[in-house]
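Shall we go through a protein fold together, starting from nothing but its sequence? Label the sequence line and the structure token line clearly, so we can match residues to local backbone shapes. Would you write everything just below, so we can both look at the same thing?
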Amino acid sequence: MNSYTYELPKGLIAQEPVSPRDKCRLLVLDRSQLIIKEKIFSDLITFLQKGDVLVLNDTKVIRARIKGTKKGAGKVEILLLKEVDQGVWEVLAKPAKRVREKDSIIFKEGELEAEVIGKTKKGSRILRFYPADLEKFLPQIGETPLPPYIKKTNAKLEDYQTVYAKHKGAVAAPTAGLHFTSQLLDRLTKKGVKILYITLHCGLATFRPVKTPDIREHDIETEYIEISPRVAEAVNSAMKRGNRIIAVGTTAVRSLESAAIKGPGQNFMIRPYCGDTNLYIVPGYKFKIVDGIITNFHTPCSTNLILISSFAPLDFVRASYTYAKDKGYRFYSFGDAMFIA
């Protein structure tokens, strides 16, 4: 884990998104020549070619942070993680020690109530809500689940949402996609770049840091993904033609690689897939589908940073992070971007 830690001045942690979105800075990493180039995100179009496939994650962030009161014990904050059954959610509670089995938590002056019915090995809680349908309550009581390192911001939920967000279920944004504008996507399409969408609902696996000294001992949580038959067919056709598959974000990388199977002639292809993945990519992993990654600058000790360091040489990634810090790049969710190819 010591290889994936680094010091970052607090002033480089982006608190607000850039406007327009595609005017953030872009650090381009050439893996074959170990060259770094400085660009603007809208310059991405010059690095993509006709026939390339751009795969984006169209998950939509929900208002997952809700505040309630435990009977007789004061206020608690709940971060919804995923619905495991109708009206039953896995959540993170804060302060966790205050939330025990059989406790009741009241929201919205009693219009919504939750009973603590379980606890997982990793410390999350299982809550059953009454009434079971949270959909009508979240717009009223839910808050944008911004990461804890964003301290002072006027950002709204729309700022923490990609312009192509469609399927509700994420509790963290697929932040690499925040840099795209509808206009840039249109320009890419006109150039002949194929735009495809998969869905991975970003949850605990996306943002929980690795704490084991040996990164291989980290137990990554499952997340739900969907890859349609149409998307699988388009990706496979592009691979047969020799076109590049560019994943936007580590969630898109994990989705595509999770769906990889051996095809005719022992070449890899992807299959349509709906279900959970707990794919954890560490150095030594052989990428089967992805040829390029658009990503952000990740937090230390994160599975995302480890994934990036599996795609490009670790020393090169570390050098690029040092370069970005020296040049004043903005880090993390609302920060600048990288294109690694």
Notes: The mean pLDDT is 95. The radius of gyration is 20 Å.
